[in-house]
Design a protein that fits this description.
Blueprint lengths: L1 H9 L11 H6 L1 H5 L2 H6 L6 E9 L5 E8 L6 E8 L20 E7 L1 H13 L11 E3 L3 E9 L2 E8 L3 H4 L3 H7 L15 H4 L15 E6 L2 E6 L3
Antiparallel strand pairs: 1-2, 1-6, 2-3, 3-4, 5-8, 6-7, 8-9
């Protein structure tokens, strides 16, 4: 069942930027992660917006934070979505056959100080600085992807565990401070990755039943499915 769900979620459909609808978002996952809508709307005079996507092994946990600072707002609106590995115990809500995988989402507001702290953390973490172009991230990896419009210019960056760049990140703590979902982040450092997935091995080929890869290229974030 999980494999079927992933196949549907990452299949390329008409792009949708509906932040409050995880199903529509998953049907155009690569566009969403790459911030296509943010990029198209970014330009002189555009408000500051950021999208944070955390991949804690795609089947185990996905977390997204859409942060929008509207004009004349002293803080920012934050839409948080968390999807785990599904809960069939809650039943299926027809006609949405994927309802067990809808996840949890909540809209909240952070004040000006919190928003400034988040922006400062992004600066420290090099969001608008050096980018490891060519970085590839598989579905069963742990990584952060951040896209956004800052000062009328679009940026994208990514951090893959267990790199030193990933370990030095400061913005996740700022995000968690305002996260009201009550769902614990699936931490790469404590997830016992190699015990959970003994067929994994970095630095070469590895057996996997996951179905996509995301890459940080010169123009932004791109994704692709691959077959086995």
């Amino acid at each position: 069942m999980a494999a079927i769900v992933i196949g549907v979620m990452v299949s390329g459909c008409e792009y949708s930027e509906t932040a409050s609808n995880p199903i529509a978002r998953n049907l155009s996952w690569f566009d969403y992660v790459g911030g296509r809508g943010l990029k198209e709307a970014c330009g002189p005079g555009a408000s500051n917006r950021f999208r944070f996507v955390y991949n804690g092994n795609y089947e185990e946990q996905i977390r997204t934070y859409d942060v929008h600072a509207p004009p004349n707002d002293r803080g920012a609106v934050v839409s948080v979505w968390v999807r785990g590995n599904g809960n069939l115990g809650q039943g299926i809500k027809f006609p949405n056959l994927l309802s067990p995988w809808d996840g949890d989402w909540i809209d909240t507001h952070i004040d000006q100080r919190a928003f400034v702290d988040l922006r400062n953390a992004l600066k420290i973490d090099g969001f608008d600085g050096d980018r490891p172009t060519g970085l590839q991230m598989r579905a069963d990896d742990y990584y952060w992807v951040v896209t956004g419009c800052l000062g009328g210019r679009f940026y994208s960056n990514a951090w893959l565990y267990p790199s030193e760049r990933f370990k030095a990140l400061t913005f996740p703590e700022k995000l968690r401070a305002g996260d009201q979902t009550g769902i614990k982040l699936r931490d790469a450092a404590t997830a016992k990755i190699y015990e959970d997935y003994p067929t994994r091995h970095r630095g070469g080929g590895r057996v996997s039943h996951y179905s996509f890869i995301i890459e940080l290229d010169a123009d932004g974030i791109v994704g692709d499915r691959y077959l086995f």
